[in-house]
Write a structure and sequence with these properties.
This protein is an alpha/beta fold. The strands form two sheets. A five-stranded mixed β-sheet has the order 3-2-1-4-5, sandwiched between helices. It has a five-stranded mixed β-sheet with strand order 8-7-6-9-10, with helices on both faces. The chain has two domains: 80 residues, Nucleotidyltransferase, domain 5 (2-Layer Sandwich); 147 residues, Nucleotidyltransferase, domain 5. The two termini are 12 Å apart. The model has no long low-confidence stretch (mean pLDDT 92). The chain contains seven helices and ten strands.
């Protein structure tokens, strides 16, 4: 059994894999006190055998330290860290490959494995909305990065004195015509994200001269992607699956 962790900007996403099968997963917010985070880590493993390998991808240096220390103390495992001790599992055809985040490499790795011989763009809707393009030859070509729903809401609240910070419920599709400031914000955030995804995919199709398969993932994908006609499917946990695939490709002992 393998333990895989994607340490993002606001939380750590953990999963257990047996072969290619995802057995269990957990999301642990960084805002929790360290003892509470450690208890959440332990709950995922409760009643299960100790993991054999530990793969880690991180875009948050501070957020990953507690997890690394806990796994080391609990199981004696050192992490295989994507983009550090774990080699890139696919070519990166970009101008500055060293700047590509581990989460984007993981998404691209999943796309190349799940859809061989197909152009794919993975749209990851989290703190940021990232577009990761993989060619039919299995090469990461680059993409785009934009603010996610939560980041955009927080930026508006910080930058405009009279605008409150709003949150969208998981099942919410707000009316486009807002009648209060809060409703207007929810409309702009939601349909702005929908429009951003549609416009970016259209530009990518134009520049690629092809129509890549569009796969949405990430925490906000279930609420936003169904309203994006250009998105072909929603797949949960793409980053975790890609991290595990990178571990399998490496055949790390």
């Amino acid at each position: 059994m393998d333990l895989v962790a994607d340490v993002g900007n606001t939380r750590a996403h953990l999963a257990l894999f047996e072969g290619e099968r995802l057995l269990a997963r957990a999301d642990v917010p960084h805002r929790l006190a360290p003892p509470d985070r450690q208890r959440a880590f332990a709950a995922l493993l409760e009643g299960r055998p100790a993991p054999r390998r530990f793969a880690l991808g991180s875009v948050n240096r501070r957020g990953r330290g507690l997890l690394e220390d806990w796994v080391r103390a609990s199981f004696g495992l050192e992490p295989w860290i994507l983009r550090q001790t774990l080699p890139d599992p696919l070519p990166l055809d970009v101008d500055a490959p060293e700047q590509v985040g581990a989460d984007r490499v993981a998404n691209a790795t999943w796309a190349a494995h799940a859809h061989p011989g197909v152009d794919v763009v993975v749209i990851d809707l989290g703190t940021a909305i990232t577009f990761d393009v993989v060619s039919r030859a299995g090469v990461f070509l680059g993409g785009a990065i934009a603010p996610g729903l939560g980041a955009a809401a927080r930026a508006l609240a910080r930058g405009a004195e009279l605008l409150p910070e709003v949150n969208l419920r998981d099942d919410e599709r707000p009316p486009a015509l807002g009648k209060t400031t809060e409703q207007c914000l929810r409309s702009g955030l939601f349909y702005g994200s929908v429009g951003l995804i549609e416009a970016t995919l259209a530009r990518l199709r134009e520049e690629l001269g092809a129509r890549p398969r569009a796969v949405a993932t990430g925490g906000d994908a279930p609420r936003v992607a169904p309203h994006c006609p250009s998105v072909d499917e929603v797949v949960p946990d793409v980053t975790l699956r890609g991290l595990h695939r990178a571990l399998e490709v490496c055949e790390c002992a």
